[in-house]
Amino acid sequence: xxxxxxxxxxxxxxxxxxxxxxxxxxxxxxxxxxxxxxxxxxxxxxxxxxxxxxxxxxxxxxxxxxxxxxxxxxxxxxxxxxxxxxxxxxxxxxxxxxxxxxxxxxxxxxxxxxxxxxxxxxxxxxxxxxxxxxxxxxxxxxxxxxxxxxxxxxxxxxxxxxxxxxxxxxxxxxxxxxxxxxxxxxxxxxxxxxxxxxxxxxxxxxxxxxxxxxxxxxxxxxxxxxxxxxxxxxxxxxxxxxxxxxxxxxxxxxxxxxxxxxxxxxxxxxxxxxxxxxxxxxxxxxxxxxxxxxxxxxxxxxxxxxxxxxxxxxxxxxxxxxxxxxxxxxxxxxxxxxxxxxxxxxxxxxxxxxxxxxxxxxxxxxxxxxxxxxxxxxxxxxxxxxxxxxxxxxxxxxxxxxxxxxxxxxxxxxxxxx
Amino acid sequence: xxxxxxxxxxxxxxxxxxxxxxxxxxxxxxxxxxxxxxxxxxxxxxxxxxxxxxxxxxxxxxxxxxxxxxxxxxxxxxxxxxxxxxxxxxxxxxxxxxxxxxxxxxxxxxxxxxxxxxxxxxxxxxxxxxxxxxxxxxxxxxxx
Amino acid sequence: xxxxxxxxxxxxxxxxxxxxxxxxxxxxxxxxxxxxxxxxxxxxxxxxxxxxxxxxxxxxxxxxxxxxxxxxxxxxxxxxxxxxxxxxxxxxxxxxxxxxxxxxxxxxxxxxxxxxxxxxxxxxxxxxxxxxxxxxxxxxxxxxxxxxxxxxxxxxxxxxxxxxxxxxxxxxxxxxxxxx
Lengths: 418, 144, 180
Prior knowledge:
The complex is a heterotrimer of chains A (418), B (144) and C (180).
Chain A: E1 26-32, E2 35-42, H1 50-56, H2 60-68, H3 77-90, H4 96-125, H5 128-149, E3 158-159, E4 162-163, H6 171-194, H7 197-203, H8 211-216, H9 222-226, H10 233-236, H11 242-245, H12 253-256, H13 263-287, H14 299-308, E5 311-319, E6 322-330, E7 339-343, H15 345-349, H16 353-357, H17 365-370, E8 381-386, H18 397-417
Helix pairs in contact in A: 2-3, 4-5, 4-13, 5-6, 6-13, 7-18
Chain B: E1 10-16, H1 22-31, E2 42-44, E3 53-57, H2 65-74, E4 80-84, H3 86-89, E5 112-114, H4 121-138
Parallel strand pairs in B: 1-2, 1-3, 3-4, 4-5
Helix pairs in contact in B: 1-4
Chain C: H1 6-17, E1 21-31, E2 36-45, H2 50-60, E3 65-73, E4 77-86, E5 95-104, E6 109-111, H3 121-131, E7 134-136
Parallel strand pairs in C: 2-5, 6-7
Antiparallel strand pairs in C: 1-2, 3-4, 4-5
Helix pairs in contact in C: 1-2
């Protein structure tokens, strides 16, 4: 028998979050056998030049609709941050009732996004029935979104100076009834996710991000909070109605008493945030004042105002995935924005992926990568180079997902055998 | 609509060429219990080699164009290409950007367009049925 | 961490930068029914004092939270705006901090800050590829969002001759964007 150990290297396309969610991004993994040594993130497959369009072709009001389509899942937080930045730059006031409506829509979006993620996480581990169960509840959140905004996905609620639609007295009992449904569903989901021994086995101590690294790499949102960094834009730097409602950043030691920073902690943080959102919406409904919803209802006047405005503004919003920041600069006499910079939270969270995946097994990659909730189109292909060899072969996303599911079955069998 | 008229199950491969994921989420929602297309025999597959229908979303960024061509070539005939969403149809809000190479029908031939930004799941199901009818019209009898 | 208000932050910068601080502006706005004051602080610094300004953020807060670099093409010069959050983790106390550095187009270089803040790497790569600014000392200078076969020397966010007008995807029969 030869002394040298031959290891084959493989190209591992790091799978889509779901076979249908082929979101293009590439992860280049260096592996040694089953263990990952290093990761390189190659993004850009979804680069559509949105900021350029906003700066060269659209006026500020059209850009709101462009901002909605930066990401279809979190389509309320981008226009939210954008209109806040433009209002800062142009010095436009917002009525208080509009602040509350904005907050309510943003929290409904957070619920739908976290439920989406929870279902996908269940699928990545191999629990198809959990995926279907959670997405059935999510459909009820979509119904609420439709009642409030008229559409399931692209909400078109935000306008510079306020919101476009009011919450009428007829809608309020519908909202409250929906919230009761979600509260019941939340208790059930909490039991399903956090009390299940297999999920604990798969996710505990997997995909760990130490607190130190989360701080140095400037991670955002639940990814950072699960690693023990107690920041939340709604808590630290409140905007709209959050200063009145009072938000506390959720870290996993609320339930477990300690912070590990692994995938399981991220599940905890996101589930608890769903509960938090339900409570915030209730409180906002109870305390929402009467009044106008839009400072300048006529679009032509608004555009004329913006054309004369000069200034810059920066706004941060807590999107479901973390801190979302928009910077806008307006120049007098120009229809288009002079400058527009968007930094979605996944932009920052992608930087922690190498640290998180080092030392993990390949079968853990789908759930670990999905646990940062990548919204800019998660990875579809990962190129894996083995350090010893240089041959390359392809395993597609299906195979990787199968590896992950197979590991769950193995662990289940071990559990049952005990 | 007599579903028992359909002679085959429909296997669908989904490809995202740079979309915002709104359409992709609605496609996944079509599988969930409320809309539940799996009861009609419509199934998502993980490889284009098994697919009858290519479901494509997105305005085709430069990086994704070779992949789209490759996937189209790998899908065996008879096949139907279905575009979901406005940005695949014409570019929608993104048209003329510097990193895009044109809506999907500039790259591969398209059979069915589903409009909307994003289209509702009901519209997607309607589009799949149209694709299915088109395929039935051209495809020979399959024994599976 | 000692939480300061905006004026105290400006004062600490004046002391630390000793002349490299060119200008400062405080923006305040009341939000919500309880009129909480939302604050952002805009500081203009010389390039020579830029590294000192960034390390000063670490003096004000351990593990400073960096968000992004914004870039503006102003014709003969380029503005780079570094966005930070100060005093995160303290309810209602955080301040948005913006450090602006103006670079002349004849000398588009800026030192890296990734040794102080490793989380700035993506933003610096983007600044290089989108604006054509050379980040001196960057550990990884590859393109991030733009494909490798995109022509060199074309910078999408510039408004001068290096802009991406040639690369626009104009559909057959259409005219494309008209610039005044």
